[in-house]
Amino acid sequence: MHEYVNAQKEIVVLNLGPSHVDTLDQEEAPEIIEILDRLAAVPNNIALKEAHFQDVDDVVSSGVCIAPSYFLNGRLNSSICRVMVEQTTLGVELKLRLEDVGALAFLEKSASRTFAEAYIWRILAVVCLSSSGHSTVASLPPSFIHDLVDWLRTSDGKRWRPEVVGRDEIKVQVLRNLVLGFSRIFGDPSLEDKARILRQDKRGSTSGKAWRRFRRSSDPLEKDLAARLTRILGESKVKPNKARQVIMDIAAWLQSSYTAGTQLFEIMKRKPPEVTFSKFLADRVGEKTAYVVQHVGIAKRLCDEILLQLEEEYPEVAFRGLITESEVRILKGSSPAAARPDSSTSRPLPEKFFPLAIEILQEGPLGWLGKRFSVWMTLGGKRLKIFCPVIPTLLWCSFQMPLRIVQWRRLDSGEGDILRYNSTTKQWEDNEGPMAGYWARLANQAPDKVAPKGYVVRLDDDQGPLVGLWVNTNKTGNPYVLPWQHEGVLARLEELREWQEKFNPPRSPLSPEDYLDAAENYPESTKAKLPHIFALFRLPSGKIPSGSEMQHAWAALMAEVEQRWNERNPDEQIEIVKRQKKTGQPYAPRFNMHGLRVRGVTRLDRGGMTLRQISSVTGHASLMMAAYYVARDPRHINDRIQEAQRNADAAEDVARDFKRLSFQQLVERTVSLDQDALFRAHQETTAAEVCDVQIGICPWDGQRCFDGGPLIRSSKLKDGKDKSKYGEVPGGRRNCIMCRHFVSGPPWNVQLQAYGCKLLAKRRDLAIRQDSLNDEAQILVEKRERKEIDARYYKNEMQKLQLQQQQVMDDISSNAAARFNLETILNASLRLQRQGQTSDLVIADRDSMIEFMEVTPFQQAAWLTKMSRVYPVLGSAATEALRDRYVDVIMFNSNITPPSLAGHLSPSERRESADLFADYLLRRLEPELIDDLFDRKLTLEEAGLVEEVRALTTVPLEHPILVTSHSAAPKLGAKSELRSEVP
């Protein structure tokens, strides 16, 4: 037994012997030994039962110091080790502290994650349960960890004891990372020397110990580089661990070219070494690998920063950069592209499993969630096991809205704000929680002067008060508003906040250092942008779920999905989780949770999006796209057509002068998605090949669709020639909006806006189709559960639906990409027209020149159909069919023969008749009345229009009809004007 006195003057003991030790000389100690023997007999491949948990409770509360071999010999069920550790305050805190300092980050890339995690629990069990007299990390004496680590290592301290640790590389990796973690937690660098045997890796680089030696070096070059890197890391976005390795590489490179003792000041006044840094690295590695390319890029950034430092310190001295742009460019051009990761290792969950996963996540504490996500908490002085909804809620929300998992994890609960949103009443209320007004008090300002931080944000909209989601972190660290009032998500998040306030009230806000995984690897400039938060998704420990905890929960969810699917589909067994061969325990899902975002409707995290844009993403609204300064009423169809026709000459001029203009003049008059492609077209095409495609021009007469798509392989020769390879245009030939060769500009603004409306209409149709397929799938599931259909029929029909669902999802993704390109081009073109700007071809300004206006399905369909009569590229059979259905139903309900049933009319005459009536409805009636006519809530007679329409239908189609519209909808029974003119 080892005995210590900690900082609190308390006795702490550590048992490193072969037997269990009862430090309290209790009468029930023999009974505890029996319980330990009983637990040791529990097989590794069974789930723990209530009796096992009770035994664990008895052991943990007994005060018996268990022999380390009990945990480390591999025979004890690893789940029992985990439960034991989680029952101790020290264990919970120690695990979280290890995650905070990045000691467990290696698990993310471990191929044997489950085995590694199990061994971590065994080591932590030794720390917590082979000892007594402690309750927190602070209560452990410094020599406690040293003695434990020394016991695990050989007497000479060079390696781990084979009789205790064995020779398994995974165990060695776990111990190395844990001891390094202990070193950071206890602030004891001497522990690092006991973590591992320092070895030179294949690149010649060294680990953390080498950096400490480098930083303390007396060599003037190394001292200067280390000091300058410290300054750089305060603002740079380069990860510190990579930057340190690159600086050591730079030092080795310069030392190989200059005599010992040469200072950096002198080196950078001279011409760079004849052997470039990229060649130095490539020679050391053996070839130009992706590692070399990445490190040269980082080295270029660091060397440029050092150059700026020297120029500021010695303005009268002329310094030279160590690495040139051409060196980096040549290296990238001559190096093989990085190999694509195996698609099987990172795939999104297939659509057919979504309903089942969501069903599981909605069951609540009485279902599987209650068994998997229950935690021990002290409530009212009692130790109770209750359901913790934090991770289940996070996973459920991820299926609803495609934010990044890390963005969900970092949402602020709003407990520090003065107001809170009630999702039931849809009203803002006073926040009466204990932390209310925290941010205002911290800033020493009036509450109304401090911006709220909670996840719900108030929106001002022309349709009334709305709320959205405040996403407080992005990849860049910049927060943004997601103006999507998702009632289900808001309700679920409010339930979580109420649970937190009742069972897990906050003690203080978390800093980025508290909630980042491996915070020390983040640049200071990145951490400075991240907010302090009252975490909505905080665990009982006070921390947010770590990346490893989320991965573990996802694996468990996938295992449950697999089990339930196989139970319901005996003829279609699946395996979506990899399992240990011996124990059968799940350890690696075949589909990752990041696919939830990939499979989202579209990428909703484009900061600065308007409410109408979000409506367009969700797809259930009928929307019109328009420039904000033009008349947007769909009734003004002819005005827009006339505007487009007035621009026809200008469009013809651009096409005709494409080759005559200088490239700079062309840039000032047009917009394009790819400036390089525009330049090549201007240089290589002929005037005869430039053709108008109604929404812009194709400089290649439609003959370059085969290489108008995304970049496949980049290849630029030393002489500047571009030999890069591009793929086909996404969506096939003539899908110009997705082509890098496509050129447009102000003369086509009207058509571009109309094309945007066409894409929005298509998106709405896809949303309706998606809902229909989901309903069909649900009906099929219900029939199967009622045993109305057999397994074979169910399987065949479900497979058909899944194929259709997959096609719809692919179409939605393509539609989103096309709309993004369209908005980019139109925004740039509108700015060119409005402000006469002469800037880059693709305008990246966030302030959009485009607005989205919600209209009725009929308005959208009628407007697009009319525009398509002049510009066929805007046509859509589905859109015209919707318009025609409105025409037919409205006329039929009013006892007027609709055009489609007029047998005496030819197909073209029916079409013209429908065009005429649709135009008449748009001019004469407000959209709400048109919908009432369609829904049989109103007839043309009740609207006072039946005589007009009868007269309209009796006029020969070759005679022009002039319908005088009113500024407002006619009142019921009012007379309206109709004038027929024959030229």
What does this entry show, briefly?
With 983 residues, the protein is mainly alpha-helical. The protein has five domains: 2-194, no CATH class; 208-334; 347-562 and 571-597, no CATH class; 624-855, no CATH class; 876-983, no CATH class. Helix 11 (220-233) crosses helix 15.
Structure report:
With 983 residues, the chain is mostly helical. It folds into five domains: 193 residues, no CATH class; 127 residues; 243 residues, no CATH class; 232 residues, no CATH class; 108 residues, no CATH class. A hairpin with a 2-residue loop joins strand 11 and strand 12. Helix 1 crosses helix 2 and helix 6 crosses helix 9. It contains 38 helices and 26 strands. Helices cover 47% and strands 9% of the residues.
Chart the SSEs and their pairings:
Blueprint: E1 2-5, E2 11-14, E3 21-22, H1 29-40, H2 50-60, E4 64-65, H3 68-72, H4 78-86, H5 89-100, H6 113-129, E5 131-132, H7 142-152, H8 162-165, H9 169-186, H10 208-215, H11 220-233, H12 240-255, H13 264-267, H14 277-285, H15 290-313, H16 325-334, E6 347-348, H17 354-361, H18 368-372, E7 374-379, E8 382-387, H19 390-400, H20 405-409, E9 419-422, E10 427-430, H21 438-443, E11 456-461, E12 464-471, E13 480-482, H22 487-503, H23 512-515, H24 524-529, H25 547-568, E14 577-579, E15 586-589, E16 591-592, H26 595-598, H27 611-618, E17 622-627, H28 637-646, H29 648-656, H30 663-669, E18 671-672, H31 675-684, E19 691-692, E20 697-698, E21 711-713, E22 725-726, E23 743-744, H32 749-785, H33 791-835, E24 850-855, H34 857-870, H35 877-893, H36 907-924, H37 927-934, H38 946-954, E25 961-962, E26 979-980
Parallel strand pairs: 6-16
Antiparallel strand pairs: 1-2, 2-5, 3-4, 7-8, 9-10, 11-12, 12-13, 14-15, 17-24, 18-23, 19-20, 21-22, 25-26
Helix pairs in contact: 1-2, 4-6, 5-6, 6-9, 11-12, 11-15, 12-15, 15-16, 19-22, 32-33, 32-34, 34-35, 34-36
